[in-house]
Please model this.
Amino acid sequence: MGTQQLKKIEEIAHIIGLNDDEFEKYGNYMAKVSLSVLERVKNKKKGKLILVTAISPTKEGEGKTTTAIGLAQGFQKLGEKVSIAIREPSLGPCFGIKGGATGGGLAKVEPSDRINLIFTSDFPSVSAAHNLLSSMINNHIYFNKEPKLDPRKVVFPRTVDMNDRSLRDILVGVGGSETGVLMKDQFIITAASEIMAIMGLSSSYKDLKERLSRILVGYTFDGAPVYASDLNAQGAMAALLRDALLPNLVQSTEGVPAFVHIGPFGNIAHGTSSIIADKMALGLTDYLITEAGFGSELGAEKFFDMVSRIGDLPIDAVVIVATIRALKLHSGMQEGKADPVEMLSKGSDNLLKHVDIIRNFGIDPVVAINRFPSDTKEEIDKLESILKEKKIEWSLSEGFAKGGDGTVDLAEKVIKKISAGNASLKRTYAEDEAVKDKIVKIAKQVYGATGVVFEKQATRDLRNLSLTGMDKAYVCMAKTQYSVTDDPAKLGWPKDFTVTVKKISVSSGAGFVVPLLGDIMTMPGLPKIPAAEKIDLTDDGEITGLS
Model:
């Protein structure tokens, strides 16, 4: 979409009632919104929040972001005052396999090229603050300062917003005493940084600085925890993050105001945009469409059990996104060797599992079937019969091809659900429960596991949580996104399985612990032919090849 078709950002700001002194323009089509808006709207009646989640992801793609944006445009077609809140794209996936993360077709956030690449410098700010702390950790060890940090027990890595597998495990200080202490280190991608999670959960500058100060950086030789505050790092880190904490305002293809802010991973973190953006949007518009990372057992569970609690956010409706071609993959049957309708019938179990998950949280969802040109009438009819049999409300979503016109039916059904007022959130665990109990409840009640195995390291980690005061913390389960189990090969709706917790890491600044169920990649690698090879800049400054 050419910028000549976009509305100037001040017009978008005025649509949601922002005053001229409440936003700072970044060019003609992007802006940062002042935190003072939070104070102005805090006593206003909150809008309705619609959470968009999905089935277990596949290589075919589900189009969750496209559907969320298209749904908001459908609301606008109905004359509703609506806004969007989604995560910022990471450069790693943009240049790797996924490409851009701004939606698609006629349901995108714009200017998409700017949003996908650097945007308003939020990701570089998070990277800078993160690596400042890494540098101060090494400096602290080099000068042998108190408390004496054991180089073998440093738990805070370095970060870069790029896929680079060569940085997963490294040695630093190899040039002799003048280059610092020789020690092992590692890089993670910026979206996996604890600071990114902290940014998403912070409510103010004061809250931000307090969370930064609580970041666990390692342990002393005696086993005592060492925090960022022990290094006096939080002030400088917060200074680097000052502008990044301000939500970004842009627009959809059809001019719906969109907050695109912060981008935490959906498995090791909570996988949603910032609480600040959500609260602003809820105070400024009647409806907010936001999304959670990966399938409902990951992003939606964390939104229900943690994010909505921390942010005091309502959840008025849930949309589950699926595609027919993804459901066929969930059948486990091979394309070309099996009847497509039979594949769909078997693979639809995965969708039914995610509906079951949301219903167990006390909310009856609407299913959005994100339509692709390859979908046949027979396949659509078969899926309709399956959903009708289970009394599941659904809609054929065509936001990609038709924009808001293709999602009006979906929007109407979501509004009908909200008007019925039957949503009554039932969370998985109480906040004061022990971490182990929370893990078991999530595994059994959400995933459907019959049992949970804690390996020796995980058991040791559970015992040590009291050292950091995290023994009753929120839980961010880290597991494969490709299955509701911890085994990516178990597709559909698996039954009679156990999950294994290998270890539990602490994100004390963010306020949660991360049980690892399997090997979770925090530094992806590039594929053999990365998307970066197709991206280019024309002689007149236009970016091409970034889908």
